[in-house]
Amino acid sequence: MAKYKLEYIWLDGYEPVANLRGKTLVKDFPKFPTLKDLPNWGFDGSSTRQAEGHSSDCVLKPVASYPDPTKENGVLVLCEVMLADGKPHPTNARATIIDDPETWFGFEQEYFLYKDGAPLGFPKGGFPAEGQGRYYCGIGYSCMGDIAREIVDLHLDLCLEAGINHEGINAEVAKGQWEFQIFGKGSKKAADEMWMARYLLQRLCESYGVDVEYHCKPLGATDWNGSGMHSNFSTKFMREKGGKKYFEKLMEAFDKYKNEHIAVYGPDNHMRLTGLHETQSIDKFNWGIANRGASIRVPNSFVPAGYKGYLEDRRPNSQGDPYKIASRILQTIKTVPQK
Ligand code: ADP
Ligand code: MN
Ligand code: MN
Ligand code: MN
Questions:
Q1: Does 183 sit in the ligand 1 pocket, CB within 6 Å?
Q2: pTM of the entire structure?
């Protein structure tokens, strides 16, 4: 027997953006525990806006587990929050995702690293004199600073060691702004791993005195880019059958439900979806081939392949919940007959 440190991780009940929470359970196991070895646990929902004080117990149900790369015998235990009667808690968006092992999602998470209330590398109380331009995929101390790359590279290693399908990194357009991509096969997989990747990034940043700023427009109405979380998706039907007719019907459905999509694509998105800075306006829906100013970008390969492949919804923002985003996309897809 050895003692294992199980870090139970869940999303709290804060609105409009849930926070990650975690607490540790130490338990003996004869060997490294798998998901089915991990018991349900509980927490005080009155401290997380998930319950009233007089009946405060919520249930943590493990749904995925990952080795914790920073600890000996450590396990990261991703949980859904359940009510005492076994039903999903109203804050549990994961439980609303249609189960489909053949749906694939790829999320591109943009974010800022913040220190003392400003993006890493900003001069005190002001903006970098030269404005945007050199930072996107930039190299060198004068534009990239000294600790940001160490953080993003360490984050990549942590994700890979935990078995998360982290696909890549790029420095983004604004100073202090970065992106990473997570891809997963199965309707919940990429969203699970996105939450775990966010967890690992935030926990790593603690020791640098740095915060991860996910707000979609942290620098307000300036000429500095905001952050998105482009959501790439494909179903088996889209990849293998597709076709122009189906694509057009699908886009009609995305247009019809545009308000329902925007409602779960992250708060304050009107600040970001302005029609500028490679975005479409928040109240319009359009699609376009290789068009970075469209709501949905159709990759170049899609039409020559016979309207087959994946699509990129560019509207979700960096603070969006990948569970809610995946859930909404699949609900809209479901309204369109596959023929
Ligand atoms: P860009 O910045 O040009 O939009 P990225 O490489 O940052 O491109 O992101 C593309 C995303 O699309 C990746 O997350 C990738 O995993 C995802 N993707 C690629 N193929 C598929 C597919 N068939 N279904 C769903 N997502 C996909
Ligand atoms: Mn990208
Ligand atoms: Mn990007
Ligand atoms: Mn993109």
A1: yes
A2: 0.97
